[in-house]
Design a protein that fits this description.
By secondary structure, the protein is α+β, with helices and mostly antiparallel strands. The protein has twelve helices and 14 strands. Helix 2 runs antiparallel to helix 3.
Length: 516
């Protein structure tokens, strides 16, 4: 038994002995009244702390009091008063004992309820805690260690720890919520989600619920809070959102693919037709070149004779002056035929390109210097848009210049009233060097776009042979390149020439911008 439990027993013993000693002293002095109320002190102490045992002690003290009275006096009045006093002692002891028993039972019941409530709180899955109006922590459930890594006593010793574990980015949310929790109605629950940083530095999501606590008379006593770890729920929700977003994007892609399927099929069909057209054109050019070569040689021999004898006759003094003009017409037309034959021979030769690294920017500038002063370009403005660091590529410079000449002449001839030609160079997908030649001329009708590279096809009536674009197509094809054309009537035409770059590991030097 510790000192706390011994103190009431010591007090009862001491006060009882004092009462008896003072009573004996008073009775010997003839004082029968002064000491009587002293007996209430040990009676009250013993009954309050020891209930039934204390009641027995009180009865013994009452009897001791009566024995002392009759031992010192035989006065009937005094004895009768002593009897009444003994009855009052016993009744007082009985009342105090009943009240003490009731109190102890109430305390025991309260203690059991408290233990029961604490047991429930201690074994709850959530992290529970109670705080007073000053936000001092009164109780923390053991579940806090599972969620935060801190023990209940850590929160009890450091009241500010409850705020410090909140994630720095969410502290304003938590503080704003805590500052107003006492404003909630007694039947309402404040809710807020935030993150905490546990003892190991990991992040956990918390669903925080708190409710104000009021006494029966409406006094604010503090709050009780419950923290539920919803980290896995949050992760699942995030995964679900990502899945929904992925599914939404997939559905959009499927819908878009479905909507564009017909367009894609049409585009692919057009590409296949274009490839077929190119293949047919290539085969046609090869066959036609062989045929033209034979025919040109056969025509060239008699044509040479005609020109030679026509010139000799024209210079003869015996020529009738009336025939001189007619002979000049023959010579001019024969020269024109010879020029056509030479063009056919050039077309049929298909000479292998003598490739060496060259700059398309420099080749284009050289071409412009060569033909830029011709009359058809007098009212035409050239716009240059060269890529400064355009890589050098392996080409036959003479053949590529011939292609540029043909393209620029066609562009100039499509703008008899003047206009502009835009020349752009660039690299495409690290695979091709490209040249765009765009004019603002009359354009090419759609029905002619598939024919412009065919030999002898021309829209210039009697002003062209129809071999320029065919020769250009053959030259670019022998360079493993491509020629593409886009045109709108009365808006203009764009020819795109694509020539392959050096193989991997080849020369990677770049060309400057000659226009600068």
């Amino acid at each position: 038994m510790n000192l706390k439990h011994r103190l009431p027993l010591i007090a009862v013993t001491v006060t009882s002995l004092l009462c008896i000693a003072i009573s004996i002293f008073s009775l010997k002095s003839g004082q029968f009244i002064i000491f009587q109320n002293l007996f209430y002190v040990p009676i009250i102490i013993s009954c309050y702390y020891y209930t039934k045992q204390g009641f027995a002690v009180s009865v013994a003290l009452s009897c001791s009091y009566f024995i002392l009275i009759i031992a010192f006096t035989s006065d009937p009045m005094i004895i009768r008063g002593a009897v009444i006093r003994v009855v009052l002692f016993i009744l007082s002891a009985a009342v105090i004992t009943v009240l003490s028993i009731t109190r102890k039972r109430a305390e025991e019941t309260l203690k059991k309820e408290r233990e029961k409530f604490r047991t429930v709180a201690d074994f709850t899955y959530n992290w529970e805690y109670w705080a007073d109006p000053q936000q001092n922590i009164l109780y923390v459930s053991p579940s806090c260690e599972r969620i935060s890594g801190y023990r209940p006593e850590d929160f009890m010793k450091e009241p500010g720890l409850i705020q410090r574990v909140v994630h720095p980015d969410d502290r304003d949310i938590f503080k704003g919520h805590a500052a107003h929790y006492h404003e909630f109605r007694i039947d309402s629950v404040g809710e807020v989600d935030f993150r905490i940083v546990n003892r190991n530095g990991g992040e956990r999501w918390i669903a925080h619920l708190c409710q104000p606590v009021y006494s029966s008379d409406g006094q604010f006593l503090g709050r009780r809070a419950s923290n539920l770890d919803i980290t896995e729920k949050r992760r699942a929700e995030e995964a679900l959102r990502e899945s929904e977003e992925s599914n939404r994007l997939l559905l959009m892609e499927v819908n878009e693919w479905g909507k564009n399927l017909e367009d894609k099929v049409s585009e692919r069909t057009r590409e296949i037709k274009q490839m077929q057209t190119q293949l047919i054109r290539s085969e046609k050019l090869v066959s036609l070149g062989r045929l033209i070569a034979g025919i040109s040689h056969e025509i060239n021999n008699p044509l040479t004779g005609i020109l030679m004898f026509a010139n000799l006759t024209s210079n003869s003094p015996k020529l009738d002056p009336l025939l001189k003009n007619d002979l000049a017409v023959i010579i001019n037309e024969a020269n024109r035929c010879a020029k056509i034959v030479n063009g056919l021979l050039d077309f049929s030769r298909e000479s292998i390109p003598q490739k060496k690294p060259a700059s398309l920017n420099i080749l284009m500038e050289a071409t412009l210097v060569l033909i830029g002063q011709q009359s058809i370009f007098q009212n035409i403005h050239f716009v240059r848009d060269y890529q400064p660091d355009l890589p050098l590529i392996p080409v036959d410079e003479n053949q590529i210049e011939q292609v540029f000449i043909n393209m620029l002449l066609n562009a100039g001839q499509s703008m008899p009233s003047g206009g502009s030609i835009r020349i752009e160079t660039y690299t495409e997908n690290a695979e091709f060097n490209c040249v765009n030649i765009t004019d603002t001329g009359t354009g090419i009708p759609e029905e002619n776009l598939g024919k412009i590279f065919d030999p002898f096809f021309s829209t210039k009536n009697d002003k062209g042979t129809g071999l320029g674009l065919s020769m250009s197509y053959g030259i670019i094809e022998r360079h493993d390149g491509k020629i593409e054309v886009q045109s709108n009537v009365r808006e203009g035409t764009t020819f795109t020439i694509k020539l392959p770059l050096f193989p991997q590991g080849g020369d990677t030097r770049t060309a400057g911008n000659p226009s600068k």
